[in-house]
Specification:
three-stranded antiparallel beta sheet; 10 helices; 368 residues; single chain; alpha+beta; Ribosomal Protein S8, Chain: A, domain 1; Hypothetical Oxidoreductase Yiak, Chain: A, domain 1; 2 domains
């Protein structure tokens, strides 16, 4: 049985920042890069956390992800902007796009920023939360390489095209929906493999297009995702392709190379970010108080046996994050070894490793 390691959020942030700097990322961008991934880990979304770093680094080393380029604003109005990411770091590009969208919303009530030629932008929910802040509704999405089948299909059709919609409340953490249009994110396969658990029925097809519950049946990048709700999820993924790639003039469908299988090719994906200033519609405190009323209503709904209450979107992630601020983040031995190997390759001193072996009774909380 492999070991588990624990590390504080602060130490993990510092380690990842130094690691990215070792691979040529500027200090400012490395901080943005690391912070987004650690925030994602803290919310229990391990599929989009530090497990992704190896792929990011592989793409930096291969030259298919350019850490030297800044964004270019191609078109701009008081409420909109079209950005070329110039094949830079998707997380850094997204941070800048969020800042632009919020600034436009602060000045004009709404900001809509469209991005093309970016790269994987991490967890959509992180950007939804940043867009929302304490005073706005945030909406964002990305397209991705084809991985989702059509409802009746046996092959990849379009990306899972995740999106997030986030709004603040008063006494509760944000209501924050963060979902892809597939049954399950590709990165979650790592967790199923690590935990030795079978997939839920109807989640994945194998390389031959046949349904499977075995996370070890073929290499992770070869799995084919099923759309959630069949025609409903597939319909949403088509519409997100339009709002991201088609609107931005970016690559779509089979034009997007694989982030895992095509390390030698750029992964030119597109995003959008919308910030909506709430007080352009109604008084902010009234809105947030009504949000609390909605949450209270959901919490008071009767539940089936064995359940404590109805959870609203984002509630579990906020609770997990609060707990991990105190207990730290747990990582598997394979992920820790990858991180330490990459650090060693760049001459980082790991003699005093920040990763400590977790006690056997350490409670692990994820959102698989």
């Amino acid at each position: 049985m492999s070991r588990k390691y624990v590390i504080s959020l602060e130490r993990l942030n510092r380690f990842c920042t130094d690691l990215f700097k070792g691979y040529g990322v500027t200090n400012e961008d490395a901080k943005i890069f690391a912070e987004a991934l650690v925030k994602t880990e803290a919310r229990g979304v391990k599929s989009h956390g530090v497990v992704r770093i190896k792929n990011y680094i592989d793409r930096i080393v291969s030259g298919t992800l350019d850490v030297t380029k800044d964004i270019t604003i191609l078109k701009e109005t008081p409420t909109t902007a079209l950005i070329d990411g110039n094949n830079g770091i998707g997380i850094v590009i997204s941070k800048k796009a969020v800042e632009i969208a919020r600034k436009k919303a602060e000045e004009n009530g709404i900001g809509f920023v469209s991005v093309r030629r970016s790269n994987h932008f991490g967890a959509a929910g992180i950007w939804g939360l940043e867009l929302s802040g304490d005073d706005m509704i945030g909406i964002c999405a990305t397209n991705s390489e084809p991985i989702v089948s059509a409802p009746t299909g046996k092959t990849r059709a379009l990306g899972s095209n995740p999106f997030s919609i986030t709004a603040p409340a008063k006494k509760y953490p944000h209501v924050s929906l963060d979902i892809s249009n597939g049954v399950m994110a590709l990165g979650k396969i790592y967790e199923y493999k690590r935990l030795g658990k079978p997939f839920p029925e109807g989640s994945w097809l194998d390389t031959n297009g046949n349904p499977t519950t075995d996370p070890n049946i073929n290499p992770i990048p070869e799995f084919i995702m099923r759309p959630f709700g069949m025609h409903k999820g597939f319909g949403l993924t088509v519409m997100m392709e339009i709002l991201t790639a088609i609107l931005a003039g970016g690559e779509f469908g089979p034009q997007v190379s694989s982030v895992y299988r095509d390390i030698d090719k750029p992964n030119p994906i597109s995003h959008f970010f919308i910030a909506i200033r709430i007080d352009y519609f109604r008084e902010l405190n009234d809105f947030k108080a009504t949000m609390d009323e909605l949450i209270d209503y959901l919490h008071e709904l009767p539940v089936q046996s064995g359940n404590s209450k109805v959870l609203y979107p984002g509630e579990k992630g906020a609770a997990v994050s609060e707990k991990k601020l105190k207990t730290g983040i747990i990582l598997g031995e394979d992920v820790v070894n990858e991180l330490l190997n990459m650090a060693t390759d760049k001459g980082m001193d790991i003699s005093n490793s920040p990763f400590e072996i977790a006690p056997d009774d350490f409670e692990e909380i994820t959102q698989i």
